[in-house]
Amino acid sequence: MDPTAPHLTLAAPVGDAIGLLSGLAAVAGWLLTHWYLLGLLVAGCWGLAEWVVRRLARKASAERMALELVPARHFDPGLEEIFRRGVQLARASTSMPWWAPRRTKAVQVRLRADGSSPLRYRIEGPAGGERLLSITPFGPAVTVKRGRPVVDKPRKHVVRAEFILRGKPTAPLRDVPLDPDPLQPLIDAVSDLRAGLGDLAELRLDIQRAPEWTLRARRMQLMSDARRREQREAQRAARSLRRDAGGMEDSLGWQLQQLIGGKPGGGGTGGGRRLVMPPVPRRVEPTEALGKLADDDHLVRVQLLAMCASDTEGRAEARLAQLQAALDVFGGGSRWAMRGWHLGPWRLGADRWPSRRGFERRWELGYCQPPRPNWVRLEELTGLLKPPTRHCRLPLLASDLPTFEFGNPELLLQGIHQGPDGRRRLVATYARETLFEVGVGKAGGGKTERALAQAIGWAHAGGGLMFVDPHRDSWPRALPFLAHDTLADRIALIDLGAHGPAPQVSSWNPLDMRHGQAGHEVVEATADAFASVLGWDDATAPRALTILTAALAVLVAVNAAACQAGRPEDQTTLFHVRPLLTDPAFRTTALAGVEGRLDEETRAWWRVVVPTLPPDAFAVVLNPMARLAANPVTRAFLGQAAGVYNIRAAMDSKMIVWVCPGGNGPTDRLITALLARDLLRAVRSRRDVPEARRVPFRAYFDELITLTGAAPETIASMFEDFRKYRVHVHGMTQLLARLPAPVRLSLVQNASTLASTAGSQSAIAPVTTEWGDEPKPDVVAALDRFDHYMSLTVRGRRVGPVKITGPHLDDVFAAYARPDNTAAFERAARTTAGTAPLDELTTRTRGQLDRVNAFLAHLTPTTTPDSQEKTYK
Which is it for strands 464-468 and 656-660: parallel, antiparallel or unpaired? Predict the structure, then answer.
């Protein structure tokens, strides 16, 4: 074998390696010489990849869906429900096609205020997550509906901001309680938003599942930093220990101790220098070093963007500052801070180059690309993962409650609302939705003043109304504001107080048949009015009801015959019930004259039953008639054959009728009951008019306790039935508990507006109970005069209870005051009501029986009184 062979064998690999290294060196040299070519290649590859990613991202962004979440007033979720919603959002963020870039794999929570609502809560995310997000753990308390695209008009002034987490990266945000609502600071920040000025504020929170590799790298960095800190601390402690030990050994005390404590016979000093053991670095615990990043469960990456806009300079910047202050509520070991720097008056952030372009791309396309990893746990986002709850105090916006416009028949004045910014505006409800109103509160609290303001506004808008006030105080208060020539031909005053030396009284015949009423309806209305006041029913007073009903049937038949004969001035009145029951001659003549107009059962009752009744059987019916006749005012008012008062005609012609019964005594209650029952009959008679042609009419009842004492069932029926006939009732009372149960239940059940002024807590408690004790009775009881808490109905939903200041006539309607026209206007109101001197009406009432007898004699000329007496005795 050749001895040089092994050397040749080893030389070949060495040569190859040298050649390879030479080649690499040459390549490296070439690359260093032509580095720009490598840079261009890398940039080209990166640009191509970015182009592809952006195209895919835009395609994925176009497939996003939106859901609108509308909470109910009683929405009150628990922590577990909110946490489950957060899990849904995190899971839904991955419901994207496999090719979708990571920046699009996110779910966005949009909190938006633009004047349409206090705060709209909207969820946007992958289309594949719609089914997952549509069924929420909040149950029926939150309505989920498909969200429409939001298109904003351009605003003159727009500011943008991006919030990032500052502070200790492993520390959590503050644990904000659910009561009050964590969203309250954000809602307060936009509470003074004015849509008329183009104000807009929106906050967007993007939620994305944390990338594992990024999170793993962050954990390694945090652990490494923690170990370095521990080592530095150990080294610092060792240096401090050695320094302390050295200082102690060099001290005089330590040297003396060594000399005294030295060994006997020794030739040297003490035991030498002390051995110092350096401290060992403490073991770093992952849970302590990593904090909220220690576990993967329910850890997400978030991006928080904000945008405020306005057409008025300065308002957008101020709004953004308010939002920033609201987010400070969530600050703890970690906090939300605005990204950017401040250089004097300038802020370098999302509104400036180079950040603005990226911000707008993320804002418009819904990308989640935070500049730094804002990692949070779902528990930290509890306040933002749900819509506003019942613990949130929502502002009242112009879109929630319309602003009152004088002369607008579609609006009904409610009061004055003061917004968060101190602005006061007259608020209203829509007239077509305000069906029934109830006002409760102590005397002098402002109930009647508010009702008067509402009635005056409605009258000037062309509406018809009836205001019933037993005490008459409302008429002189409202008169200066109604004294306009445009209202003079529409106003009628029915005043039974008979004030002054020459009192003027109107007239009304409840049995008047001139207007084509159905006879049985007139009989029923009148008999029911007497029964309600006197407490008659089929169990306690069957005979009285029967006698009165039969007598009224005869009198109504006589009146129908008189009107048919063209002699309405010869009609009977309520005061002819007495001669019909006690005067055999008059009874015989009347029954003979209308025999063909009565049914067989009624004729048989008069022929068979009446002769068997004892003389005192009629006393129970004659007693209330005698009381009415004993009062000259009521005798004159009810004793005219052709009365002027006609509430059905007033409703159809949009009249303004002011009714003052005169008091609350037994006779006054009977008059009130008759008027109320006649109103119920007249309203129900509107069924002969198509619904679209029924003229709206409003009835205001002051002092409901007095009125319902006379006709409880009638008032209850009004609150139950009048809506069908476009007649709406407004009632005021000091104590809801003092109303009869049927009236109270109907009021509360059907009230479109429920209002309360100050009063005792026990009196207010029934009202606040209907509101869920929010506000509490003690809060309402402490209200100032003219202040109300009220719930209203607007666009089919309840608004409030909200604090409203009742309108004061001297302030709100100051421009309508015509004090110089009051005397002439009151004369016009009395003229329209057909008033006449009390003495004249009394004289006419005394002669009415003779006119009726003359008519009956003309009606039955061939029938002798003797034969009639034999027939009906």
Answer: parallel
Q: Side chain identity at 559, as an amino acid letter? A: N
Closest CA to 136 of 200, 64, 88: 88
Q: What pLDDT was estimated at residue 269?
A: 47
Q: Which residues of 307-344 are buried (b: 16+ CB within 10 A; e: fewer)?
A: bbbbbeeebbeebbebbbebbebbbeebbbbbbbeeee
pTM: 0.78
Residue closest to 648 by CA, chosen among 727, 757, 561, 542: 727
**Phi, then psi, of 375 in degrees rounded to 5:** -90, 130
**How many residues are there in the chain?**
873
**Could you give the CA distance from residue 49 to residue 146 in angstroms, rounded to a whole number?**
35
Q: Is the peptide bond before 611 cis (omega within 30 degrees of 0)?
A: no
Q: What is the DSSP string of 215-266?
A: HHHHHHHHHHHHHHHHHHHHHHHHHHHHHHHHHHHTSHHHHHHHHHTSPTT-
> Which pLDDT value is given to residue 266?
44
What distance in Å separates the CA atoms of residue 427 and residue 415, rounded to the nearest whole number?
A: 6
Segments in the chain below pLDDT 50: 1, 263-271, 862-873
- In whole angstroms, give the CA distance from residue 397 to residue 191: 8
SS (H, E, C) 812-844: HCHHHCCHHHHHHHHHHHHHHCCCEEHHHHHHH
**Which residues, in sequence order, are bridge partners of residue 335?**
166
Strand, helix or coil for residue 537: coil
**Side-chain-facing half-sphere of 429: CA atoms under 13 Å:** 25
Residue 791: its H or E element: strand 787-794
Distance (Å, whole) CA 393 – CA 11: 89
What is the H or E stretch that residue 585 is in?
A: helix 584-593
- For residues 63 and 57, the answer to whether their CB atoms sit within 8 Å is no
So what's the pLDDT on residue 412? Answer: 92
Neighbouring C-beta atoms of residue 206, cutoff 10 Å: 26
The position carrying tokens 């509360």 is: 748
Amino acid identity for residue 84 in this structure:
R
Angstrom distance (rounded) from CA 570 to CA 578? 17
**Contact criterion met (CB below 8 Å) for 475 and 720:** no
> What local confidence, expressed as pLDDT, does residue 862 receive?
46
Reading phi first (left if > 0) and then psi (alpha if -120 to 50, else beta), residue 506 is in beta
CB 713 within 8 A of CB 742: yes
pLDDT at position 867 is 41
As a whole number of angstroms, the distance between CA 456 and CA 816 comes to: 10
**For 233, what's the count of Cα atoms within 13 Å in the CB-facing half-sphere?**
11
Residue 291 CA: distances (Å) to CA of 211, 228, 376, 436, 817 = 18, 17, 11, 59, 72
> What one-character-per-residue DSSP string does 592-645 give?
HHTGGGS-HHHHHIIIIIGGGS-GGGGHHHHHHHHHHHHSHHHHHHH--SS-S-
